[in-house]
Task: inverse folding
């Protein structure tokens, strides 16, 4: 049953609390409100917009609050997204207990793998590859002895 309906009927359970905590995790991860009428139609409901992205590691970067400017742990984001995904399960029986959520979050306090370091490392690697490709292209234009260029 829809969590909003349960709220209005007064049928809240510990699994309803877990769902709500999943929404809070999403708000922290994205920097967005759970309902934002100022966003485009498909983005107004945070859970509906984020749920498909939570399940795909390649799309996680789309979720992260851009104001963080890569100052976050990649592993931390992956773990928080995974926890939020489980907390927001449509089937309340599939949701973790709050104890399990806390156990999942606790190790994140020790993470130190900042995205900007990974991003800069990736950029450096890409720049090295581009430089190497330029060198190869220059070398391919030269053949024979004494480095004479084709067509000369």
Result:
């Amino acid at each position: 049953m829809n969590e909003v309906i349960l709220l209005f009927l007064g049928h809240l359970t510990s699994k309803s609390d877990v769902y709500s905590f999943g929404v809070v995790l999403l708000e922290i991860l994205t920097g967005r409100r759970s309902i934002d009428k100022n966003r485009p139609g498909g983005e107004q409901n945070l859970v509906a917009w984020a749920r498909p992205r939570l399940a795909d590691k390649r799309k996680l970067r789309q979720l992260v609050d851009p104001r963080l400017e890569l100052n976050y742990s990649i592993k931390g984001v992956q773990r928080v997204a995974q926890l939020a995904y489980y907390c927001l399960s449509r089937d309340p029986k599939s949701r973790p207990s709050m104890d399990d959520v806390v156990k999942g979050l606790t190790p994140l306090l020790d993470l130190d793998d900042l995205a900007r370091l990974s991003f800069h490392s990736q950029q450096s690697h890409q720049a090295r590859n581009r430089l190497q490709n330029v060198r190869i292209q220059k070398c391919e234009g030269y053949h024979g002895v004494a480095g004479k260029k084709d067509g000369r």
About this structure: Residues 142-148 have pLDDT under 50 and may be disordered. DSSP finds seven helices and no strands in the chain. Residues 67 and 147 are 51 Å apart (CA to CA).
